[in-house]
Amino acid sequence: MNLDHDQVRASVRRALELVSSPEQVLRWESAELSGQTEAGFAVDQDADATRVSYHALADAMRAALALREQPTAIRARRALRRLSVMIDMSRNAVMRVETVERYLACAALMGYSTLYLYLEDTYEVPGQPYIGHGRGRYSQDELRRIDDIAHGFGVEVVPVIQTLGHLRQILKWPPFHGIGVAPEVIRIGDDGASDLIRAMITAATAPFRSARVHLGLDEAYGFADRAPDPTDRMGHFLRHVDDVTTICRELDVEPMMWSDMLFDVEHGAKDYYRTDRTIATRTLEALPDGLTLVYWDYFHHTDAYYELKLRQHRPLPTVMAGGCASWGRLWARLPESITACTAAVGGAIAAGVDEAMITMWGNDGNECDYFSCLPALAHAGDRAYGLTAEQTDAGLGSLGVSQELWVAASAIDDPFDDTDRAGAIEPPNPSKWLLWLDPLISFGEIGLSGEVADRMRALGEQLIRTESVDGPDRRLGVIAHLCHALALKADLHLAVRPAYLAGDRLEAKRLATDLVPDVEAAVSRLAQAHRDRWFADNKAFGWEVLERRYAGLLSRLASTRHALTEWSEGRLEEIETLEIEPLRVAPDTVSATVPWTVFATPAGMA
């Protein structure tokens, strides 16, 4: 063990200066540093001195966050070789380099030592101007800057790309129309596709010090539709795995892949999570040497489940990838995420794997603030260190995160009613249902009640004070505005159709004159707050998607105001869209995280 304590002190200080308080920096600067052979750290604080021993820079980072004003003694053993975080930069939001730096500082101080950057098309591929065009792609220089920043924090950056499926954003462009077999899937064995994949792997790995690359290869449905022998789906898939890993060997990089298709192709269905579904021994034996599998599962809540599924990957090296529920919502669903992520880490420890990763995805427009996942990251990381919930809370406090408020904000997605969701694998996102639900077409039944409006109003009042504070808690201001808009929108949905069916033209006039304008004003304030947060954190590209959603909602509210006014004043005989009976349109089993298009209009959004 060869530790440069001065360099470690400087690296930790830089991270603390970015995201913690001056007091925490001073505590760290006054500490006496020493090394230890066991992975982890020890902190001894008394009236006379602060002593910190650590095994690696990641351990020193986590120790710095544990320093307190009062005497403290902590012994923490790290049970995993690596703690990792993955950020999706391909679903609209591409973080500014400065935002990545702040996120890296937070994650490093929690003990994370690897950042996976998920980049479907949002990275520069020399000679391929269409890849990432108009999408805020990172330049090669920007990726090198991210790698340099991460290196200063002791964090490895690993690119995560796609080399089979999830390539819609590339295949949509004219130069690539001939190499796809499905809208998102590249044709296996096509010479042009192979050349493109080589260029992508080369470009994705060039800016980074890491010798690893994640090739994706997940959810590639339809990959065998034009295979020479469609009945040999696994053979067709494995030939592609061999082709892309051969490219990696030629480039001297170590390949990784998501493991779901090894289950799904084997069993002919998406049975990935069934405990009785395994990867066939012959399939494991056919996989190329040097390949690491990544088991992704974001929905289960026990160590034992994850341990069992990880053991099904043996003897290949495997990484456990849990997930913070950031997709399909405006704020991470923290109660379920904390439970699922800590269980994923616990299962990784029990299964004896080296690495656990926590992923954050931006599906359905990336409306969510990824920083809202920090409590889930903290609890998952501290599970690897064997720390208590109180110590995790204290560590988050050192980052300026008021955990109680951040978890409270997740209540925007508490179920609106008591519908049985025993079969659901994802936490619901009813705040999104209500936000985008068309105000004039009464087609969607989402379990609204006056209690929902009252609950949103109370939560908004609880959170609005954060809008004027400095530090991470300020991020809750967007959710406060969301709560206010949701409360008023709930009032509107509960009032409009009953007034119309009762023939109450006076009430309709009141709604058009008072309530609808109040909803419009609240949605406008939410859109502005959301925009401000977006542009502070992300490149401008991608906001146009969300801006259209807000603009569409505001336009529909204006149409609602107009229709109610016309009907209340006798110029309109009926409002056709309020004549239909609302139906339940959100699934209550399989998955309860529903995209915005389901509620924006029954016509769908082509």
What report would you give on this structure?
It contains 21 helices and 16 strands. By secondary structure, the protein is an alpha/beta fold. The strands form four sheets. Strands 7-6-5-14-13-12-11-10 form an eight-stranded parallel sheet. The radius of gyration is 26 Å and the shape is globular. The mean pLDDT is 95.
Strand content: 5-15%
Order of the strands making up the biggest sheet:
7-6-5-14-13-12-11-10
- The DSSP helix count reads 21
Oligomerization: single chain
Rg, alpha carbons: 26 Å
> Based on DSSP secondary structure assignment, what is the total number of beta strands?
16
Helix share, percent: 40-55%
Shape: globular
Mean pLDDT: 95
| Major sheet description | 8 strands, parallel
Whole-Å distance between the termini? 58 Å
Poorly predicted regions are none
Q: How would you classify the helix and strand content by structural class?
A: alpha/beta
Q: Which key phrases capture this entry?
A:
16 strands; 21 helices; alpha/beta; four-stranded mixed sheet; eight-stranded parallel sheet; 606 residues; 12% strand
Quick recap of the structure?
The protein is α/β, with parallel strands linked by helices and 606 residues long.
List the helices and strands and how they pair.
Layout: H1 5-19, H2 22-29, E1 32-35, E2 40-45, E3 50-54, H3 57-66, E4 72-77, E5 82-88, H4 97-109, E6 114-118, H5 140-152, E7 156-160, H6 168-171, E8 180-182, E9 185-186, H7 191-205, E10 212-214, H8 233-251, E11 254-258, H9 260-267, H10 281-286, E12 292-296, H11 303-311, E13 318-324, H12 334-351, E14 355-360, H13 374-385, H14 389-398, H15 403-409, H16 430-436, E15 444-445, H17 450-463, H18 476-501, H19 505-537, H20 543-568, E16 583-584, H21 597-600
Parallel strand pairs: 1-3, 5-6, 5-14, 6-7, 10-11, 11-12, 12-13, 13-14, 15-16
Antiparallel strand pairs: 2-3, 2-4, 8-9
